């Protein structure tokens, strides 16, 4: 029986699935965060915990992991050699650490060609056409990730300060932000000084809610986000692309805003990133796969 | 003889001047940085060094400082009580710590009413009309300081990444930035991750130089900066304002770009921030001043 294992890991947790050569999932398991950029050792521990739990769920001894090839989709896989480093530490028969965006793409598209946008705290875009995969964006909110929640939140704080100074018009939303900071602009500055992407991103739902009541500042910020998302997709999508999947926490908000060119080809994702990891494992390590001995 | 002392301090150094009640400068001195937000103790040391040097330059014993009132214009004077804390540590007869933007405004306008924009790494705007002073901006580059060098530089790095991804058109300037980072977008991301305002600001001169050769990206970024500066000035300037002083490292670049409404009232600054500190000292502590016993 040709078993293989797929892992989907990130800052909030780690999921594993054991599957047969036909792709059928035999067992799953979860464990804590796997952020290999900030904590490789803990990530390693959690990955093995999740994989062993998936084994037990499939009625297998954890020792069997040594016989299974694994594909791991992890954030930061391509940053500073962390992915290669982790591959050398893992107990699986063979290991391939790939980016979480690749497993998300392969999972979302299934057997089809098409494009994907992941818009959560950050933003990244990818397309696959005739086997060729291309990514754009995903550079982090400081100089990228346009349209993502951190950028939306940061832009809202800037608008609140511009409204405070009388430079831009106030709106119910900018007043709500100022009130949240005790009507003290210096409190906004201090928050922004140490805010991480997730912290800025906490204000994205405020924008989405306010846009629902036609707040002009919220509508403008969301429209700037939509334009950035559409610019990235336009640059990325091959001619004739007829499938676009939106993933991430802001996908529902943007789905309703997209121009018809993009809205018309929106499709539900075929599967999730864990499915994607298993699909890549099957392709690389399964019968007739690229890396079979 | 009613002597007083003025101090102009900041992240790059500290200047002091001793003047008579008529405002005539009798001696000046300099010392190291005075950044009271990050290092109050060293700032205190440098302020006293500069003041004692000014005394000696005026042919006075440093002990005379205990008889002189002082006004100090310092960055961060209004942040977290640092200004008040420093006032209690100083050896002068009386001390008033005010923001460096106020001493710059009073110095630049001299006896006139008018408006001022300081556009360097950051940006802040102020106006005085019939004794009333108002400031806008200056909130730091993360959620403010529009038009300043840090914002320009950060925007350029973002454009270089958008050009790399094929989302926005390339230009000679975006190509120069990519080449500077070894054509490795990840190197830009890593730079941005730890860059301070001054680090981002190092790219502002690149933009100004490229705009001089009609680079389209440089022209667009500088035009966005100009619009932000003009929006702030429009919100700030009282009706009939006929005097606008531009200060800071980017003032020359922006002076040539301003719309005629603003360009027509540009004036050379009357004096610098040290003159401003002495003018405030004269007003508050001089004969007939607000705080005379």
Automatic annotation (TrEMBL), chains A, B:
Q: GO molecular function: any one?
A: kinase activity
- What Pfam families has UniProt attached to this entry? BcrAD_BadFG
Query: Sorted alphabetically, which keywords does the UniProt record give?
Result: Kinase, Transferase
Q: Which InterPro entries match?
A: ATPase_BadF, ATPase_NBD, Euk-type_GlcNAc_Kinase
Highest taxon of the lineage: Bacteria
Annotated coiled-coil segments of the chain: none
Q: Which residues form the ATPase BadF/BadG/BcrA/BcrD type domain?
A: 5-254
From the Swiss-Prot or TrEMBL record, give the protein name: Glucosamine kinase
The record lists the lineage as:
Bacteria, Pseudomonadati, Pseudomonadota, Alphaproteobacteria, Hyphomicrobiales
């Amino acid at each position: 029986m040709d078993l293989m294992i797929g892992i989907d890991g990130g800052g909030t947790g780690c999921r594993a699935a054991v599957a047969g050569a036909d792709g059928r999932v035999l067992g799953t398991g979860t464990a804590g965060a796997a952020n290999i950029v900030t904590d490789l050792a803990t990530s390693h521990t959690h990955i093995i915990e999740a994989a062993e739990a998936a084994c037990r769920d499939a009625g297998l001894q954890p020792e069997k992991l040594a016989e299974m090839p694994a594909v791991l989709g992890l954030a930061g896989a391509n940053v500073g050699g962390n992915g290669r480093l982790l591959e050398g530490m893992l107990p699986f028969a063979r290991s391939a650490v790939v980016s979480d965006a690749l497993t998300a793409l392969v999972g979302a598209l299934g057997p089809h060609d098409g494009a994907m946008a992941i818009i959560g705290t950050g933003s990244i875009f990818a397309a696959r056409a005739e086997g060729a995969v291309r990514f754009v964006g995903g550079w982090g909110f400081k100089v990228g990730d346009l349209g993502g929640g951190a950028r939306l939140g940061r832009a809202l704080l800037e608008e609140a300060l511009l409204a405070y100074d009388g430079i831009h018009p106030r709106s119910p939303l900018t007043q709500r932000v100022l009130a949240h900071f005790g009507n003290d602009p210096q409190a906004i500055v201090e928050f922004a000084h140490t805010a991480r992407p997730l912290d800025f991103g906490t204000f994205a739902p405020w924008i989405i809610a306010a846009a629902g009541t036609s707040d002009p500042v919220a509508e403008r910020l969301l429209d700037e986000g939509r334009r950035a998302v559409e610019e990235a997709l336009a640059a990325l999508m091959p001619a004739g692309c007829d499938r676009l999947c939106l993933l991430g926490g802001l996908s529902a908000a943007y789905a309703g805003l997209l121009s018809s060119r993009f809205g018309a080809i929106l499709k539900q994702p075929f599967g999730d990133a864990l499915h994607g990891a298993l699909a890549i494992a099957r392709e690389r390590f399964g019968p007739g796969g690229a890396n079979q001995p």
